[in-house]
Amino acid sequence: MPDPDAQPDEVPGPEEKTEARIKELAEKDSWPDPSDGRRKSRLRRTISRWANSTDQHARELRQTVRESGLVAIDQAPDRTRVKLSGSLRTVTLRPRGGVPALEAELFDGSGAITLIWLGRRQITGIGPGRQLEVEGRIGVQDGVRVMYNPRYELRA
Questions:
Q1: Residue 103: exposure state from Cβ atoms within 10 A (0-12, 13-18, ≥19)
Q2: What is the sign, positive or negative, of the torsion defined by CA atoms of 109, 115, 120, 135?
Q3: 85 CB contacts (<8 Å, ≥6 apart)?
Q4: Bigger pLDDT: 49 vs 130
Q5: Which of 7, 72, 142, 152 would staple 110 via disulfide (CB 3.0–4.6 Å)?
Q6: Is this structure's pTM higher than 0.70?
């Protein structure tokens, strides 16, 4: 038999239900923070993403490409003459079949393509971080998108 003097179990009121639901959703929408094992909220992830300078640079490059009316690298079709714009990430000298070849990686925020100038050891003005507009035909070599001897224009 139930004890008449016992307190009844507390039933959560609307405020407690709301708080519990908010807490449950916050835990569900968060990811573990790799540095200390805690979970990151959606807001914190968004702020971190916007504060990341690499992501910010990629967003700015994508916006520049959109405003210029050129094709984004990830949207550019293969084996078709295209005009691309972006920033050089790397510039290296790699001989190809005994012939010097200057290779550069062009990045526009959406993707990257390797530019190859055959017979060149260096090109004045071509260096990492430089803004460039190139025109040429995209091909695929060993699974990597490349453009050989593109016409280029240095940007500010």
A1: middle
A2: negative
A3: 64, 65, 68, 70, 108, 131, 132, 133, 134, 155
A4: 130
A5: 72
A6: no
Exposed/middle/buried for residue 107 (C-beta within 10 Å: 0-12, 13-18, 19+): middle
* Cα 141 to chain centroid, rounded: 23
- Which stretch of DSSP H or E encloses residue 17? helix 14-28
3-state secondary structure of 14: helix
Rounded Cα gap, residues 150 and 138, in angstroms: 9
Looking at the predicted structure, is the pLDDT value of residue 145 above 70? yes
- Phi, psi angle pair for 91, to nearest 5°: -135, 125
Residue-by-residue DSSP string for 54-119: HHHHHHHHHHHHHHHTPPPGGGPPTTSEEEEEEEEEEEEE--BTTB-EEEEEEE-SS-EEEEEEET
CATH number corresponding to 70-154: 2.40.50.140
Return the structure tokens found at 15.
């405020």
